[in-house]
């Protein structure tokens, strides 16, 4: 076992757009597992948009990462030393290991993975937090009904692609929004969306709205919100009465809050269209994780539910990969392979 | 029977603030009831903030009043001629009679009132649309739990005063917001609010927020939204996780959309605090009207639930009274007595 491990810490807080200077790669002493803990070597770490929020000062739904602290991330690790009765060296586990080559964690805080059941990377994507987010938000707050129309952005991402496929299974018309013609093609051909619009092709929310209106002749019943910004502005006027908006993210507004959309316009839509808007993060709903696996797992095993992964290599490339992902540079669930 | 009736029509659409010039009093021929219709003489008409929305062009949740058309209003009328088997002259009925001395209506579109059961005016207020709005919004979207904290503005109005009393009955801490020291005193002494803040005493949302924070030491679980504007801006930062916001109006933004609150700030609160926001108008929920009367009626009959009415006189004074009400000039449910 090496006596040093590598980690990436928050070097400084971004002002507006985040940059590589906000991160720093460090070598530190290899930690020793305490009573009840395991030491893992991280094989795969997850990169997710929520991490941008943790880089800001001030509490969002979670405490910020402090300057000099390891960046937060979920990961899949191999146990290499164990003081927990529940784990042996060679076991694989899912946990909050951070942007790091190794980590110690309480056995009770991590979940054992069976590499023969599904590829290990799926624990970070389609069978993990993003897939579960898609399923719970659609089911609990979207309340989809056959014949309705759903719109979701980041349509080839791990949340959007799952939302779209689940809604199609339930008999909805599904219109995606994505960045670039290639992603739009993927959304339709791989994920079965009825249509997908390239938001980069529309300079204004008004143009995007007109294109959406053409693809949603019966209006929009569910807008699964993960981006905010121009897309929200285009969608709101097209929402039907009694529409539902599950809100799991607003990536367009993470770096900047510039927008033409006003607060009264949002409130007016909520009131006059009798909308139901629900913010949520999946971390509060793990009591339903078993239901999710039971419902979605078979479709993934059979191949009926498709998923895409975008796997970068090397911890040192995590900051660049993360920043690129925040601009839509990835295609599918962004993962970093460390081993 | 006179051969002329009086009505107030929309003379022009307001630009920003509405004014008396937007209305016109007219005399027209007395209408004759068709088959199935009754002719009523209106005794009381209701003035409500939603009417401001009907004065604008463009569909809100209802079609606008057209130029030259009678302004919309609920009213209590005495049947003076009937071609409906369900009504006889002398009966009293609740219906959408408009800003008018007389009106014809289908018997099936109006509801018979028993003047011995409750004062006729209560059909427009505490036992009518505003009281029902308060009850349904709190019950269905507020989901109140004992020990929680609720905030509602226009605290002495027909909606706010009912929301506050119902929430007190359920064991919540209830903090009102109202315009002026007299109304705040009424909210506490007559309606039993735990506290009430005078929004006029705070130039900025920040000042109001600090005062609210002091009165809501455990944060805010339910914000019953009927005003928008500065109050919403002050409340949002104080909302607790999993808070609920039933939205039944936004009177502060009816005349103008000026605000310091931004769209991303609203969305960020919804997301990071896991809020549930529901827009509604009571016209969609009359299937629950019987439940409302069954639950709230006894408290009104016994005097446990208080209510205030502000009764102006004369159809010709309706525009002035309406405009004053939109600025908070009324105390309690605004009604105009015509007979």
How is this structure best described in words?
With 339 residues, the first copy, chain A, is of the alpha/beta class. The first copy, chain A, has helices at 50-54, 129-142, 158-169, 181-189, 205-215, 229-235, 263-272, 289-302, 318-326, and strands at residues 4-10, 23-29, 37-46, 75-82, 92-95, 102-106, 111-113, 149-153, 173-178, 195-198, 220-224, 239-247, 276-279, 309-313, 333-337. In chain A, strands 3, 4, 5, 6, 7, 14 and 15 form a 7-stranded mixed β-sheet that branches. In chain A, helix 2 crosses helix 3 (158-169). The model of chain A has no long low-confidence stretch (mean pLDDT 96). The interface between A and B is large, with 36 and 36 residues. Strand 13 of chain A pairs antiparallel with strand 13 of chain B, so a sheet runs across the interface. Chains A, B: It comes from Leisingera caerulea (Phaeobacter caeruleus). Chains A, B: This is NADP-dependent oxidoreductase. Chains A, B: Residues 18-336 form the Enoyl reductase (ER) domain.
